[in-house]
Fold each of these.
Amino acid sequence: MMLEINLLPVREEKRKADLRQFGLLLAGTFAGSIVLAGMAHTKLIADVAGTRSSLADLQREIDKFKPQLEQVERYRATKQAIEAKLAVIERLERSRSGPVHMLEELSLHAPERLWLTNLEAEQGQMSVKGMSLDNELVALFMTSLGSSRYFENVELKETEAKEVDGLRLNAFQVNASIVVPGDPEEAADPAPAPPAAGAKRGAPASTGR
């Protein structure tokens, strides 16, 4: 004779127990998530409050040093104004000493057997006239003059053969642009090559403005 046991009630109880356990686990997970979210929110609020406090402290520091910063800016503006005035004064000084150095440069760069007879300078341009024994001396004068820091764009305007007191000479006119160097003493050029024996160095005879 076989015994028959009904297992359905046991299975039903096990299923209910599993459901209760799953429900408890789900509820615990949900509760834990809520707790974690609350903690994160609390920390975020604390971080925001700390950041705002730091910004407020920084603003107070800026406000505290603002008068000093404004004073520094005033000093800086005053310094720039003084430097601008000094630059103007230096330019005026260089312009005032320019003609003297220009005459010195012309005398230094005029080769032997070449004489300067007239000089005109206006608005940064110079025109010099003179006499020489030959055209090679004029070319030498122009080359030497072009090496000076006081002149640029040196060019021959005209040249003409003339007879003076029975001596055949070349009359010439040379034009150039005048440059005012930053420091006249530093800008002084070395003297040209020593003159040949028995000849005199040319020098400006007259000036016109």
Note: The two ends are 151 Å apart (CA to CA).
Amino acid sequence: LRLDPDFLPARNNLAVLLSATGRSSEAEKLLRETLDLARRQRARAAEAAAELPGVKQQRAETTDANRAGELDVRIAALEMRNREVRELEHLIGQLHFSLGMLAAENPRRLDEAEKELAAAAALLPLRPRVRYNWGLALNQLGRTAEAEEQLKQALAMVPDETDFLYALATFYAEHGRWRDALPYAEQLLRRRPDWPDASQLLQRIRRALRE
């Protein structure tokens, strides 16, 4: 960072390290600064990349070999800017996720955590761990239908993930939906037969179904 304070991956890695060592306030401050910087870099890259369709059109229409060569170079540079936009969007999603996880540590900041995790999920739609944590936050806020959807989407991406199986089984049990909870608890115990929590959860669900 001393050599290049605008190098976003280094800033993000430092924030993760600060959080892991209990320096949450410093981590959050750095994450927010990095998010602002990433957004500005993305805006500049997107502005440049917006020229790409027009330059491609010029390339298709030109019959001058020298001009065609110049346009090919320009197209390559703009396509690189396009890739930069996608990379920055991915990083921005990671930053929102990190901010959401930090906020979720404080029960009074659940609304804020949910908003950050929702933003992360929009930018990282194929990251199941993002949807899982978003679902947990939604459930804590009482938004059960949305929570169920996100937890199920997370599990659909990684069908044997024990955290996701446990989350869905306990989610349904918490809301008295014992029959819905049962298959997830059974699958969880098959995956983790040595885990006492899995066995106890399944016993609790079966007992509730017999009553």
Note: Residues 132-211 form a domain with the Serine Threonine Protein Phosphatase 5, Tetratricopeptide repeat fold (CATH 1.25.40.10).
Amino acid sequence: MPATGATVSFPVGTATRYAPVLLTGSSAAADVQVRTFTGVREHGTSGAAYASGSRFVNQSWEIAPVSAGAIVDATLQWPGTAENTDFQRPKASVYHNDNSSSGTWTALTSTGATGIDPYQLTATGISSFSTFAVGSAATPLPVELVRFGAQRTSAATVLVSWATASELNCAQFEVEHSTDGQRFELTGSVPCGYPAGHAYSFRHEAGRPAGYYRLRQVDASGAARYSPVAYVAAAGEALSLFPNPTTGAVTLLGLPATGSVALGLTDALGRTVLAAGPASLAEATARLNQALAQCAPGVYVLTAEVGGQRQYLKLVKE
């Protein structure tokens, strides 16, 4: 391409995804090669699909000067149909990856995209070449939840607690309760609005039965998101299963992680599916799920022996 001030268009792309590059020289004349390809890869031209690719235009441009010393301004263009779901034009940046096996995507400029389909974005003073892409920074979540849990504090009372690291435009937290892990109902709400984060607790007079809890965090805009589900065993209950019914694996609940349990599993005809000796909770769960993977849909009886006491649980595989 010519020296300082001259702009050259490289008409790369396809008929359905035309993605040309405009290069303006700001140094001595240089020979430059340009190509484009669909997708954004972890290491530029290699590796798996980039984990944050949903925030990018689904297109990459490789710019490679044949001679050393080139410094250019690069304008990348793309059609709106190439934009992935989480890409935001006003927050767009040109990103660069050096194509090495440890290469990562680094933002060069963040002026936002311009144009009306096709769109474009320019990065100036480029002297390090290889692969480029257009992406937008992640939007911070209104609330960063760092902890959520529930535990029984008495035969009839459950304490639900959670903590945040930051809160932005948070309206309230809604504590929801379920008896089956599927249908949840509002139990109560707690106002929020601590920019630096806060620790919360909510007391629920739930009675003795087992229960499931989750948190619904509501933004000032009305948008909402849910926490993971926390399970609380029934008062006096040593062990339970979740989910139940299940389509695959289950989790044994109600025992400390350091506990020991011996499991047995029989089908509706009384035939033994699993007979395992005492093991840690993690190992027992793994054995149970290996056995379940071979089971046909139906009703099974799980026998759990803990501390010399035997408990029988119905397990339904759908």
Note: The chain has three domains: 7-136, 143-232, 240-317.
